[in-house]
């Protein structure tokens, strides 16, 4: 019951606990120990046998080993080169035909504009109506478009598709195209302003309506 004795007994218990901890720490450093996951009821630590460690090591090495990839992976069969060439040529022929049809339609529209609008307005000889200012060099545009279509027809008529050289046509007419449309585009805004002014004049507006009606 003496306080001094209680202190001595407590120190002894502490030394005993310290020895146990040091002993367990030494065991962990020298003996392989893993937690048991066999069943939910197992607790504590189970020491693996040498055979278990060997089997575990082998499985781990198998998982860590790089996967061997075949040097010749399977590839889908290559499409026949002749079939690819045939489809590309058919597509090219279709594009050229569409290009030429578009040019024909454009020339047809220009024909109608010149015959049904420009020439009748010129024949009226209305002093305050500037026909050339309103339509700029559209007649020259028509001539150039007809020339382009003629060159395209020459390059494709009675010529096998692989031998049809379309790019050469545009290179040949490149200069005239630039010169002609440069003038047309330069006067486009002025022509638009002029048309808005003429539409404010009832007489001129009626003449323009008559021309549009004839187009329809």
Automatic annotation (TrEMBL):
**Record's GO cellular component terms:** cytoplasm
* Matching SUPFAM superfamilies: DBL homology domain (DH-domain)
Please report the stretch or stretches of sequence annotated as the DH domain.
91-216
Spell out the Pfam families in the cross-references: RhoGEF
Chain coiled-coil ranges: none
Where in this protein does the record put region Disordered? 1-85
**GO molecular function terms noted in the UniProt entry:** guanyl-nucleotide exchange factor activity
Q: Which InterPro entries match?
A: DBL_dom_sf, DH_dom, Dynamin-Rho_GEF
Q: Where is the composition biased (Basic and acidic residues)?
A: 49-62
Name the record gives this protein:
ARH38 factor
Name the source organism.
Nicator chloris
Q: What is the lineage of its organism?
A: Eukaryota, Metazoa, Chordata, Craniata, Vertebrata
The gene for this chain is Arhgef38
């Amino acid at each position: 019951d003496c306080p001094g004795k209680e202190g001595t007994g407590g120190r002894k218990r502490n030394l005993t606990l310290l020895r146990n901890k040091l002993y367990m720490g030494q065991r962990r450093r020298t003996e392989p120990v893993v937690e048991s996951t066999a069943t939910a009821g197992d607790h504590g630590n189970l020491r693996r046998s040498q055979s278990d460690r060997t089997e575990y090591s082998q499985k781990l090495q198998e998982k860590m080993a790089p996967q061997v990839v075949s040097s010749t992976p399977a590839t889908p069969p290559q499409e026949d080169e002749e079939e690819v060439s045939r489809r590309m040529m058919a597509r090219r022929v279709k594009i050229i035909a569409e290009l030429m049809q578009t040019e024909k339609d454009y020339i047809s529209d220009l024909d109608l504009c010149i015959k049904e609008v420009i020439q009748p307005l010129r024949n009226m000889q209305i002093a305050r109506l500037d026909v050339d200012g309103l339509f700029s060099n559209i007649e020259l545009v028509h001539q150039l478009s007809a020339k382009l279509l003629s060159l395209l027809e020459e390059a494709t008529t009675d010529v096998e598709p692989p031998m049809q050289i379309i790019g050469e046509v545009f290179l040949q007419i490149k200069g005239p195209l630039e010169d002609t449309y440069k003038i047309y585009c330069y006067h486009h805004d002025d022509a638009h302003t002029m048309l808005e002014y003429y539409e404010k004049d009832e007489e001129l507006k009626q003449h323009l309506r008559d021309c549009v009606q004839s187009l329809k």
